[in-house]
Amino acid sequence: MLPTPSTSHVCYDAIYEPAEDSFLFLDTLSSPSETAWLHSRFNAKPTPFLVELGPGSGVIIAFLSAHCHRIFGTEVLSLGVDVNAQACRATWTTVQKALHETKQASTSTSTGGSVYLSSLTGDLTTPLKPGEVDVLVFNPPYVPTDNVPAFPSTGVTSRKVTFEESSHLLSLSYAGGADGMEVTNRLLQELPVILNQHGVAYVLFCRGNKPEEVKDWINGWAASSNWSWRAETVGTSGKTAGWEKLEIVRIWREEKGS
Q: SUPFAM superfamilies given for it (predicted)?
C-alpha cells in the first residue's frame, strides 16, 4: 500500500477534509487493474499533464504526483485548480511535502520524479488550454442541494476570513445543486475540448447523481471513424460515504477495434 500524503498542516475551517471519497480515488487509481491500464496508456508517451479540479487539501494530486511511477509508469507534470484560494495554498504545501518525502525515501537516482507546476485559482477548466490535459481528476461537489453557492469574491483571499465566509467556502466543496450534478455537468461538457486525444478523466459520482444514465449519455457522444467515447465504473464500486454509495467513472476516447 502506498503511503497517504500528510495534510496535518491544513486548516479545515474552509477546506474540505479528506474523507471516503478522497480515499476511493487513492485506492482506485493505485489498484493493479487501473495502474496496468494507465501504464499501457502513458508510459510510451511524452510526460503526461495531470490536472485535479477542486483539490481541496491536495491529498489526491499529491498522492498521484508522489507515486507517479507506480501509477502511470512515468513522471508527470501536475497542476491544481480550485475556486478556493485557501485550498490552492494548502494543495501546494501538501504536494511539495509529499514529493520531498518520496524523494527522501527513494533509493534510486534514475527514476526521476514529477513536477508540480502551480495551484491556480479558477473555475473548473477556465485556466486551461484546449487539448492539453492527459489525466483529469475531479472529486466534485455531488450532494444534491437547492442551489450551487456563488463563487467567493477576490477580496476574501487577501485577509483572514470570517466564520460566514469559511462556511461559504466549505459549502463549495459539497453543494452540487439539482441532483448534485450542476457543477459536474458543466465539467462533463468541457471534456471533449480540454482532453487531448489520449486524455482520460476520472470523475466521482454518488448514487443520487444517476451515474448509469450519465455513462449512457457519454457513451453516446459524437465519435469519429477511428474512435468513440467510453465511460465505465472502475475500481471498487459501491463504496459507502455515510448514507451515499460512491463510484469513480473513467471517461476516455477509445480507438475502434482495440
A: S-adenosyl-L-methionine-dependent methyltransferases (SSF53335)
> How far apart are alpha carbons 142 and 174 in whole angstroms?
6
Q: Where are the domains of the chain?
A: 20-255
Evaluate whether 117 touches 78 at the Cβ level (below 8 Å): yes
Whose cell is 467510453? That residue is: 230
Nearest alpha-carbon partner for 25 in 67, 54, 59: 59
Distances (CA, A) of 42 to 10, 73, 76, 248: 32, 7, 10, 20
What is the C-alpha to C-alpha distance for residues 197 and 227, in angstroms, rounded to an integer? 9
Q: Strand 195-206 vs strand 227-241: parallel, antiparallel, or unpaired?
A: unpaired
| CATH number, span 20-255 | 3.40.50.150
pLDDT, tens digit (0-9, with 9 covering 90-100), for 100-138: 988 887 755 444 578 999 999 999 999 999 999 999 999
C-alpha cell at 226: 477511428
Alpha-carbon distance of 56 to 66, in angstroms, equals 17
Residue 233 has which C-alpha cell? 465504473
Give the sign of the dihedral formed by CA 169, CA 174, CA 176, CA 178.
Answer: negative
